[in-house]
Amino acid sequence: MPATKHLPKTFLWGFATAAFQIEGSTDVDGRGKSIWDDFCRSPGTTLDGKNGDVATDSYKRWKDDIALLRQYGAKAYRFSISWPRIIPLGGRNDPVNPKGIEFYSDFIDELIANGIVPFATLYHWDLPQNLHDRYGGWLNKDEITKDFVRYSRVCFESFGDRVKHWITINEPWCVSVLGYGRGVFAPGRSMCPAKSSDGDSSTEPWIVASHTILSHALAVQLYRNEFKPTQGGVIGITLNGDMAIPYDDSPENSSAAQHALDFAIGWYADPIYLGYYPEYMKQVLGDRLPEFTSEEWTVVKGSSDFYGMNTYTTNLCKAGGHDEFQGFVDYTFTRPDGTQLGTQAHCAWLQTHPTGFRQLLNYLYKKYKTPIYVTENGFAVMNETKMPIDQAVNDTDRIEYFRGNCEALLAAITEDGVDIRSYFAWSLLDNFEWADGYTTRFGVTYVDYETQKRYPKESGKFVSKWFMERLSSGKEILSPTPSVAPLLNGRQLH
Ligand code: GBH
Predict the structure, then answer these.
(1) For a pocket test of ligand 1, which of 173, 374, 426, 436 has the largest count of ligand atoms closer than 8 A to its C-beta?
(2) I want to staple 422 with a disulfide (CB 3.0 to 4.6 A). Which of 12, 246, 385, 417 is the partner?
(3) How many helices (H) and strands (E) does the chain have?
């Protein structure tokens, strides 16, 4: 029997969450409102009509969450900081809330005391409501860039002595397209009459995207200039993006797959890692794609120490679609012969396909030539929420999803030479799944929302065992040809 291949000793694995999806306690300790607070309260925005007022009650139960992480043996935890807890009104001249700082500070201390590396995201979609009301939030370049940088500064100052892994913005594609294009996420702007009476889906998403890129880049510039020299951490952006493969071998569908990648990933990654927009986007959008000034380009290009990768699935791509946000490409999971690509999840957009996961890791590494941190990857079992708890925790489909993707991850490292430094399963807990409310469960831990009791699912135990087995012994195989010098000058973080 061949010896089990091992992960590099410094590899970080664990689970991820986001503030608004788990914290609840939206009106305590001076927290200001976020754009999600009222958005999810208005009729028709969430599938079950529920909101984030309680969620998994993690603002109160945070010690239990950390105990759970410890029980799983996680080496790292990816969480997000709530901007309106830190600066309730959001702006650069608005007061900082000491209670907000204290909460995350204690949280980080407790993680470290438990041997868990904190991986902090500054923005996971919970913009202070006041900034939206005051000046249009992400639509206002001059204001939002400055306010985001100031918020980032407060976080670096308060937590950077202990947090050495920073993510600026989570999935700016979702912020733009879902928040300002389709209008299904806060702030719910769209030209779709069912969703919103104001907004302009043909321009706003592209504008918002350029402002998120710039805000990210300016926060990174600040970190590198003023904090990195003494604090020594790494900072980058996390992008969502799924592998795209041609539906068949026709030339138009081959280009369709590349077009899908350009619109989903290249939109952000090409500017940030390569310093230009994808040609195809320029062609399609013309002057609706906002240009950066040459000064801005120097800040944007190279503004991420790593590629933060959130990925869930793989799409078969057909040319001739009608959705501009997908680059006029249609997605399907049904192959030409009628078979399915993988196992269907509870969400229509998600099927298993480990081969695609490995292909995407290779595609990104080859194209952007930067170390990859997998910051989210996960699966929602079909109809899990209708099951009794003892059945829900036996989540075979989720185990198979993680087994397939973890093996693919290992192969990408040990066989393909991709420099991958972390894997975070989404999510530590079932939680508030945005527009799905609580109907879709992504957790490796079941949450009974009546009692807030947590029940580890088999998949949580599986992920934990899988990583422990591949990290425990000294026989690790380092990634063969790391083409990028190790970050942090080889300094171990714990
Ligand atoms: C992540 O986004 C989020 O970071 C996380 O907060 C969330 O809980 C998790 O996924 C699970 O959903 O059918 O056109 O609406 C994942 C990226 C991009 C996946 C948008 C779903 C919807 C496609 N998402 N996509 S559509």
Answers:
(1) 426
(2) 12
(3) 19, 13
Written as six digits, the tokens of 332 are: 């399907």
Q: Which of 23, 376, 384, 433 is catalytic?
A: 376
Give the pLDDT score at 489: 35
Tokens linked to 445: 């831990």
**Domain assignment of residue 323, yes or no:** no
Mutational pocket test of ligand 1: of 171, 185, 311, 401, the residue with most ligand atoms within 8 Å of the beta carbon: 171
Residue 383's CB is within 10 A of a number of other CB atoms, namely 11
pLDDT of 198 reads 87
Q: Is residue 342 part of a domain?
A: no
Q: Which residues line ligand 1 (CB under 6 A)?
A: 18, 170-171, 174, 240, 310, 312, 349, 376, 426, 433, 442
CATH number of 42's domain: 3.20.20.80
Number of domains in the chain: 1
Strand partners for 236: 167
DSSP letter string over 271-338?
IIIISS--HHHHHHHGGGSPPPPHHHHHHHTT--SSEEEE---EEEEEE--S-GGGTSEEEESB-TTS
How does DSSP classify residue 490?
G
| 3 state DSSP class of 482 | coil
CA of 309 to the centre of ligand 1 (A): 13
Q: Measuring from atom 26 of ligand 1, which residue has the nearest CA?
A: 349
Q: Is 376 one of the annotated active-site residues of the chain? A: yes
Three-state secondary structure of 428-445: CCCCCCHHHCCCCCCCCE
Could you list the residue range(s) of the whole structural domain that residue 173 is in? 12-244+257-313+348-492
Give me the residues of the chain with pLDDT under 70, please: 1-3, 472-494
88 upstream amide cis, omega within 30 of 0: no
Q: Which alpha helices (DSSP H) does 114-250 contain, by range?
A: 129-135, 141-159, 172-173, 179-180, 204-222, 228-231
Domain-located, residue 206:
yes
Rg (CA), the chain: 21
The answer to whether residue 125 sits within a structural domain is: yes
Look at residues 384, 389, 431, 387 and name the one whose alpha carbon lies nearest to residue 50. Answer: 431
pLDDT digits (tens, 9 = 90+) for 376-415: 999 999 999 999 999 999 999 999 999 999 999 999 999 9
